[in-house]
Design brief:
This protein has about 450 residues and is of the alpha/beta class. The protein folds into two domains: about 30-65 and about 345-455, Alpha-Beta Complex (Aspartate Aminotransferase, domain 1), CATH 3.90.1150; about 70-345, 3-Layer(aba) Sandwich (Aspartate Aminotransferase, domain 2). It is built from 17 helices and 15 strands. It has helices spanning about 5-15, 25-30, 55, 65-80, 90-105, 115-135, 155-160, 165, 185-190, 195-215, 240-250, 270-275, 300-315, 330-345, 345-365, 400-410, 430-455, and strands at about 35, 40-45, 50, 110-115, 140-145, 175-180, 220-225, 255, 280-285, 295-300, 370-375, 380-385, 415, 415-420, 420-425. Strands 4-10-9-8-7-5-6 form a seven-stranded mixed β-sheet, with helices on both faces. Strands 1-2-3-13 form a four-stranded mixed β-sheet. A four-stranded antiparallel β-sheet has the order 11-12-15-14, with helices on one face. A hairpin with a 2-residue loop joins strand 11 (about 370-375) and strand 12 (about 380-385). It is globular and about 70 Å long. The model has no long low-confidence stretch (mean pLDDT about 95). Bound molecules: pyridoxal-5'-phosphate. Pyridoxal-5'-phosphate (PLP) binds near residues 152 and 257.
């Protein structure tokens, strides 16, 4: 490794990096990003990268969008801060909530704003508890989530998350959360089991879990349409259609975590539309503002809202809210992002790129160290394996995923290593030419990784 630059040394001295192997950081140093334009970002040493991950699955409009800058400036000038507590209001929040109600895939009555996806999912759980207290079912409090799900990092949302590194060392998950099977056929399908049989097995297993825990103790199930940070896992056809009737039967409602899938990523406004989910409530964040400011949202139907209103007659104030939930800057940028998505007809643009994405992923699936290249819309996961035929993973001590991501950076492309899966989720405004260049760089990185693995 080359010696650290001055800015890297300062970074190492001052920053506790999230999601980072802290023990190896001193050797590599951080890649300090300085600016961005379109789908490109540039580090402090002047290196250019195609941002193949939209930052953290969020910068759908890419970087340096002047209309967003203008909207932010105007909002900062007119009202940099106000809140929604105690019956106060701000117009950007009203406008954004109205837009979300219009776009929602199911009837939505109210929108509750947060600052992040984790806070949105944390709020979802509190709302489920409050709702069941309000409707006289105080025992119905557990939430079902799935192994490999990602729902955030607050104590509750990290508990919903089904990934070991979010639990290990933190004494999580807390009780009231139960995890069911992950719908990843490539990894969890059994020998000789068809996809349809796999779906049936998972549905049966969910029913057994509910029966074992007691249906009267379970409030809701939370699910991402396509699981993102667990490794871009696309459930098999018919998965949600198989599990939803079981949830309905036991009066367990479905919370749709659209934090990554929402706003066009899968080719529809919502991943739930692409994947056949009919949720009762929805969480959104990330592309909600195209990451130009932090914002999260929880969208809920009229019957839940009415139960809250009735409950507040008995117990008084609805006691939940964040200082920055519905921040004017976030809301103004949410309104502007949606306006730009609509002006660009981002859904048609994404749909026009899906065949390119698909063709490149199919080619990558043939690479000798790739076990599975899976995708939905403009998001994909490339799982690296030591043996293609047996699906044998690389020895964990090799850390092949992070090595591949580093080699990709050296080839001018940013992907995210999730274990040994390379995630790809470029800004939705990417052109076909840029997308092909991104995949050229991925292929080069895979060749370099294979060479390294053989050494
Ligand atoms: N839900 C999903 C599906 C996510 O992917 C994420 C973050 O990656 C979150 C929730 C948490 O969002 P945040 O990091 O904004 O708290």
């Amino acid at each position: 490794n080359p010696p650290l630059t001055n800015v890297q040394a300062r970074d190492l001295d001052a920053i506790l990096h999230p999601y980072t192997p802290l023990h190896t950081l001193p050797q590599t140093g951080a890649t300090v990003i300085d600016h961005g334009k379109g789908v490109y970002v540039y580090d402090t040493q002047g290196n250019e990268y195609i941002e193949g991950m939209s930052g953290l699955w969020c910068a759908g409009l890419g970087f340096g969008n002047e209309e967003m800058v203008e909207a932010a400036t105007q909002q900062m000038r007119s009202l940099p801060y106000y809140h929604l507590f105690g019956g106060m209001g701000i117009e950007p929040a009203i406008e954004l909530a109205e837009k979300l109600k219009e776009l929602a895939p199911v009837p939505i009555s109210k929108v509750f704003f947060t600052s992040s996806g984790s806070e949105a999912n944390d709020t979802q759980v509190k709302l489920a508890w409050y709702y069941n207290n309000a409707r006289g079912k105080p025992e119905k409090k557990k939430i079902i989530s799935r192994i490999k799900a990602y729902h955030g990092v607050t104590i509750m949302s990290a508990s919903l998350t089904g990934l070991p590194y979010n639990h290990k060392g933190f004494d999580l998950p807390i009780d009231r959360v139960v995890h069911t099977e992950c719908p990843h056929y490539y990894r969890f399908g059994q020998d000789g089991e068809s996809e349809a049989d796999f779906v049936t097995r998972l549905a049966t297993s969910l029913r057994e879990l509910i029966e074992r825990e007691g249906p009267d103790t379970i409030a809701a199930m939370i699910a991402e349409p396509v699981m993102g940070a667990g490794g871009v896992i696309v459930p098999p056809k018919g998965y949600f259609e198989a599990i939803q009737p079981i949830l309905d039967e036991y009066d367990i409602y479905l919370i749709d975590d659209e934090v990554i899938n929402g706003f066009g990523r899968t080719g529809n406004w919502w991943g739930s539309e692409t994947l056949g989910m009919t949720p009762k409530t929805i969480s959104a964040a990330k592309q909600l503002t195209s990451a130009y400011a932090p914002l999260g949202a929880v969208m809920l139907p009229e019957d839940i809202y009415q139960a809250f209103v009735d409950h507040s007659r008995q117990i008084g104030t609805f006691g939940h809210g964040f200082t920055y939930g519905g921040h004017p800057l976030g809301c103004a940028l949410g309104v502007k992002a949606i306006e730009i998505y609509q002006k660009l007809d981002i859904l048609s643009h994404v749909r026009s790129l899906i065949p390119v994405f698909e063709a490149r992923m199919k080619k990558i699936a043939d690479h000798p160290i790739v076990g599975e290249a899976r995708y939905c819309g403009l998001m994909g996961g490339v799982e690296l394996v030591a043996d293609k035929a047996t699906k044998q993973p690389f020895d964990a001590s090799v850390g092949i995923g992070p090595k591949a991501a580093t080699l990709a950076r050296q080839n001018g492309a940013i992907f995210r290593a999730i274990g040994d899966t390379l995630a790809v989720c470029p800004p939705m405004i990417i052109t076909a030419e840029e997308l092909n260049a991104l995949f050229d760089r991925m292929e080069k990185a895979l060749d370099d990784t294979e060479f390294l693995a053989k050494k």
